[in-house]
Design a protein that fits this description.
The protein is mostly helical. The protein has four helices and no strands. Helices cover about 55% and strands about 0% of the residues.
């Protein structure tokens, strides 16, 4: 799964936190957050940890996949 980095950045800005603080709150390593920030995919459990730390629903931060031609 992929996190929508734009949405994540907006939610973090509203919460007044940076990626280091998110790493501490979510118990997700800064290296993993760096991969996510650079557009890499991650496991659902990582997404859940991040969403929980930000007090948002997982669907608020994931990249919604669309099928072309449908």
């Amino acid at each position: 799964m992929k996190i929508n980095v734009s949405k994540l950045s907006i939610i973090m800005a509203r919460a007044g936190i940076n990626f280091s603080e998110l790493a501490n709150l979510s118990k997700v390593s800064r290296a993993t957050l760096s991969y996510i920030k650079n557009g890499k995919t991650c496991r659902p459990d990582i997404i859940n940890k991040i969403a929980t730390a930000l007090n948002v629903d997982v669907t608020d931060i994931i990249e919604l996949e669309t099928k072309e031609g449908v």
